[in-house]
Recover the amino acids of this structure.
């Protein structure tokens, strides 16, 4: 599975997810700071959470990414909902993408994409996204990632 983030102008983040069965594009709106949410939610997996859900407003719809940890693997699913800020349980949405992936590979790919956004520079990042770069959660994520890598090398 591959994942890529493209920060467009005027507050849109294109999230493209691809595997052998096809690809799915999520046009994430700046209605919420989904970049902050992605980093915060995937960090929770590094700290031992068994599941996380990332809510993405796509105007006029909503997508949710559920990542369920199963040992060193995870199930990555995307669900669609027909309205913004939907209150339904996740299983009431339509599952439009599902893949099994190594958790470490997924987290590494997400970190690479976040680093590409940071490489834009904080001023350009803010100009395109409308939110400051989330240094606090980024630091938490990179610290946990480094701890995981250090543990593997022992």
């Amino acid at each position: 599975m591959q994942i890529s983030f493209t920060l467009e102008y005027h507050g849109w983040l294109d999230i493209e997810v691809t595997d052998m069965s096809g690809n799915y594009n999520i046009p994430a709106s700046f209605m919420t700071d989904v970049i902050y949410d992605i980093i915060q939610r995937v960090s929770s997996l590094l700290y031992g959470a068994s599941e996380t859900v990332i809510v993405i407003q796509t105007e006029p719809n909503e997508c949710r990414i559920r990542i369920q940890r199963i040992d060193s693997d995870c199930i990555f699913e995307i669900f669609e909902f027909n309205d913004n800020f939907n209150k339904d349980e996740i299983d009431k949405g339509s599952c439009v993408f599902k893949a099994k992936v190594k958790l470490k590979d997924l987290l590494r790919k997400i970190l690479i994409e976040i680093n590409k956004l940071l490489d834009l520079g904080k001023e350009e990042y803010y100009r395109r996204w409308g939110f400051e770069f989330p240094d606090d959660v980024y630091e938490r994520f990179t610290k946990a990632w480094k701890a995981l890598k250090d543990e593997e090398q022992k």
About this structure: The chain has a mean pLDDT of 93.
